[in-house]
Amino acid sequence: MDIATLPGIQAQTITTARLTTRVLFSGPTDGTPIIFIHGNASNATYWEETMLALPAGYRGIAPDQRGYGGAERAKKIDATRGMGDLADDVIALMNHLQFDRVHLVGHSMGGSVIWRLLIDAPERILTVTLACPGSPFGFGGTKNVEGELCYADGAGSGGGIVNKQFTEAIARGDRGDETGSPRFVMNTFYFKPPFKPVREEELLSGLLSEHIGEQEYPGDAVATANWPFSAPGQWGPANALAPIYRGDVSALYRIDPKPPILWIRGSHDQIVSDNSLFEMSAYSSLIPGYPGVEVFPPQPMVSQTRYVLDQYAQAGGAYREEVIADTGHTPYLENPTEFNRLFHAHLGGN
């Protein structure tokens, strides 16, 4: 994959016990490691500025995750494991690079991967920084702060709810700016308009590098009688985010040790919010048969995250929630000064 990197960023092809993929590096080779995990419809390119801004003595590492960018196409995401494949890939990378413990940073779906890493390997995590993370209960198909399923089969989540025109545009490498195009989605929903990033073309290339297919993105789906008539399939990242595959979220409260967590979100995030424009209830007036808000209300994604982190704190952990004003779903790019101030203080234990 040919996306130019910034000076100071080194791109390598790494083969671990699980995956061959492109990995970006910054900082001294003997520095304290920080692994950056990107979100959906993006890749490691999105982390370059944040990696270059790290304080002295830190080593930044950002892999293209399975299903994205420079990761080998033959390795698919088994969605029935939830975030398991992606979390195991991070642990395999840590083992390959001989890191005993790391700081973790995750954006959007990358934050969802970190929920799983906290459960699976808390002893290997120094700190966690979450930027607009997905709800611990998954994306779509749940209600109330405790993540109750709207339907037992997870209807309203998974690959079947992904916009077909969007994935087709990614597959053909559409670089136009018409409504609904990948560029339009990035500039309208990743960021709070009128913000546009300096490296817009490189970031768009990162978005367009997502692997597209029935076993990739958007993945497969299962027809159901439950509104909106699509339930999760078994393959790809969208299905892996489905709430029926989330596992036991309460396991977070029992982990030992409990790494400190910094949760940073954008004030105007339209993707991960309590009224997400990407969640199916937003289309209730367009899809016949909507059962009403009692059955399928908007998923309270932010409130669910706060509920889980409050339980985490009550069980002996620590977290801090910060909101960066006038930013959308990608505050580390929209206001890097404020994001890095909070992030760097967290790394230093402040």
Characterization of this structure:
This protein is α/β, with parallel strands linked by helices and 350 residues long. The chain has a domain at 10-148 and 247-347: 3-Layer(aba) Sandwich (Rossmann fold), CATH 3.40.50.1820. Helices cover 26% and strands 18% of the residues. The protein has helices at residues 48-52, 84-96, 109-120, 164-171, 182-190, 200-208, 237-240, 301-314, 331-334, 336-347; strands at 10-15, 20-26, 32-37, 58-63, 102-107, 125-131, 142-143, 148-149, 212-213, 217-218, 221-223, 230-232, 261-266, 319-324. The strands form four sheets. It has an eight-stranded mixed beta sheet, sandwiched between helices. Helix 8 (301-314) links the parallel strand 13 (261-266) and strand 14. Helix 2 packs across helix 3. The radius of gyration is 19 Å and the shape is globular. The N and C termini lie far apart (38 Å). The model has no long low-confidence stretch (mean pLDDT 98).
Count of DSSP E strands? 14
Count of helical stretches: 10
Rg (C-alpha, Å): 19 Å
User: Biggest sheet: strands side by side, in what order?
Assistant: 1-2-4-3-5-6-13-14
Distance between the termini: 38 Å
Q: What oligomeric state do these chains adopt?
A: single chain
Q: Which percent band covers the strand fraction?
A: 15-25%
- CATH architecture label of the domain at 10-148 and 247-347: 3-Layer(aba) Sandwich
Biggest sheet, in brief?
Answer: 8 strands, mixed
Secondary-structure-based class equals: alpha/beta
Shape: globular
